[in-house]
Each structure stands twice: as structure tokens, then as C-alpha cells.
Design goal:
7 strands; 5 helices
């Protein structure tokens, strides 16, 4: 009888353990054909920004070093580069200590001429698929359905994603 109870407990534990790990870890992540939800995030000036109706590309960064490189790259562009190309830029600063944000990062971001939406707290951003040291680039249709999600760490590729170049046909 004890052996039967022991086997039953082991089987129950194994089946529970297997079920926990069998669940799809990506079930809550956004994916192609989902509708991209409108957000309300503060920009670097403390003003609430929502997803513009004409946005075609959302660039999300979850890596501080990558964000710093992107800021340098954007500084050589026109201040209106993102807006002109109907792109929005989001960075996740939840891991940054608030004192660092307040004393150093915040004032530095205010010097940039391009808009930055900030994920400061809460769970917004958790639904974005991520790859280490890569931008998550989300392409939207006019109805805000997601047509593509890509992971990019190359700025030429990112520029092409933001503002696709059209080949001229040779006649």
C-alpha cells in the first residue's frame, strides 16, 4: 500500500511539473497579426505620449548599451527623422536606479531632439518579444495590426526597416 501511495505521489508531482514547463512561455507575447495596443508612456520631458494613429514602426530597446549607440546614431539625423518616417522609439529603463535616472540619464535625454518614450515601471514592455542586445522592431499596418516583428542590431538594417529604400528599375 505504501508503495502504491509513493508511486501515486511521484506521478502526481511529475505530471504537475511537466504541465508547468509544457505551457507556452510565449503565450502572452505579441505576435504577427495581433493588434498593437495603444500605450500611454512618458517621454523624456515627462509628458504622456500615446501611440500615434499613423505610426508604422515601433522600435523598442531593452539594452542600455544598444540604446546609447542608437542615440548617437540618431543625433546625426534630422530631429524629425523618426516622426518623418512614422516611427516611435521606446526604451525600457525599469532596471535603472531612479536616482541615476533623475540625476544623470533624465537630463541627458532631455538634450536629444528626438522623442523617446520611456518604460519606467509596471508590466508594459513584458509583452514584447526580445533577443539579447537587439532592438525589437515592430511593423504596423494602418489598422495597427502587426505585420512583422524583427530583431535588429545593425543600424543600416534598422534604417532600411524605418525608411525602406526602393530600388530604381533600370530600363
Amino acid at each position: 500500500m505504501r508503495l502504491f501511495v509513493l508511486i501515486a505521489v511521484v506521478c502526481l508531482c511529475f505530471s504537475t511539473h511537466a504541465r508547468l514547463f509544457a505551457e507556452d512561455e510565449t503565450a502572452d507575447l505579441i505576435k504577427v497579426n495581433d493588434v498593437f495596443d495603444t500605450y500611454s508612456l512618458e517621454d523624456q520631458f515627462g509628458e504622456i505620449q500615446t501611440l500615434r494613429k499613423d505610426t508604422k514602426t515601433v522600435i523598442a530597446s531593452f539594452d542600455m548599451k544598444l540604446s546609447k549607440s542608437f542615440h548617437k546614431w540618431l543625433k546625426i539625423k534630422e530631429d524629425s527623422y523618426l516622426d518623418d518616417n512614422k516611427a516611435e522609439y521606446i526604451i525600457d529603463i525599469r532596471g535603472m536606479p531612479k536616482i541615476i535616472t533623475y540625476l544623470f540619464a533624465g537630463p541627458k535625454m532631455k538634450k536629444y531632439g528626438f522623442p523617446i518614450r520611456l518604460i519606467k515601471e509596471g508590466e508594459y514592455g513584458d509583452e514584447f518579444p526580445k533577443q539579447e542586445k537587439m532592438f525589437t522592431v515592430i511593423t504596423l499596418n494602418a489598422d495597427r495590426t502587426i505585420s512583422d516583428i524583427s530583431f535588429i542590431d545593425d543600424f543600416d538594417e534598422l534604417a532600411n526597416q524605418i525608411s525602406p529604400k526602393f530600388k530604381e528599375y533600370e530600363w
